[in-house]
């Protein structure tokens, strides 16, 4: 068995491959239902919706500026893993419509599945030292410079995304999207514990 | 925050809910493609294909004898949690086709997807002190008592099931099923580490 506290490169690779696959399936469900979400992917969904540009391209573009910040704050490994993760997710989201075509879906179930898939994807990628775009790094930087709590900034930015979405989406879609985002946030809040998963 | 070493009741409940939902989603993918798999669920799928009975009731019934073994070797908490997970999976597989459907699904991607979904489901259930019954109990018992990796024990049982599956399905279907089962077992073999995820 490999070292308890340090993942091998192969272990990181399978963790990121798993996370990207689960996130891509979650995005596929989100797009199929016309839902929105928060964080980096949420910003990309909104921009793609407003401009008509393809989501994978927008998402990859949105994550690029945060790579430099991630490198400086979290080191080159984090930046490299984040780049691999976002590039792979962009590619997979572009390919997935050719592999999976969803039929009719119950919207509440779709929202819960999205939340769980994104939750497990986030957990796997973060535990293996990467991220899905690292806008949270911006909030960490903000906290360091101004003292404004990163958690609050993250919540506030999600509120802004949902407020903007309220202008372009019907209320029921917005409500289902909120359920999905809530499941995702709760999943991470309960399960992302460095004191329980001790490897890095 | 709760104690790092012990999950609270709510933490276990969300782990079980996540595990049962992901496993049910995995079974939906598996049966949509007509694939088979290993472990107790694989036995139930084979019986379901051979008799035309639904997977849910068959899976629930097969697991009943194993609860005694679970109670005796693993304690009542494990047995009760496993019963809850098995009952939830059985119920969810009966209602999920009404909630989620696929128009098209690439068989190779579907097989890998099944592997990831079931692997994540089992990992969550194991870490929260439950299993999906039967062979999982025997495998976990062997890992805890003799130090045999649960992934390898399950692979041995899977080999027997796949030999039987060759009599029921064509070779390409069994080959794809093998890919799915391989992914499940790799996810467990690499990631089920009590030294890394220390909470119970």
Automatic annotation (TrEMBL), chain A:
Transmembrane regions: 12-31, 43-66, 78-96, 108-126, 173-190
Membrane topology classification: Multi-pass membrane protein
Record key words, sorted: Cell membrane, Membrane, Transmembrane, Transmembrane helix
Database matches in InterPro entries: UPF0750_membrane, YitT
Subcellular location: Cell membrane
Keyword Endoplasmic reticulum attached: no
Predominant place of localization: membrane
Name recorded for this polypeptide: YitT family protein
TrEMBL record, chain B:
Membrane-related topology note: Multi-pass membrane protein
Lineage of the organism: Bacteria, Pseudomonadati, Pseudomonadota, Alphaproteobacteria, Rhodobacterales
Protein name: YitT family protein
Compartment list: Cell membrane
Chief subcellular location: membrane
Pfam families, sorted: YitT_membrane
TM stretches of this protein: 15-35, 41-70, 82-102, 108-126, 146-168, 174-191
UniProtKB keywords: Cell membrane, Membrane, Transmembrane, Transmembrane helix
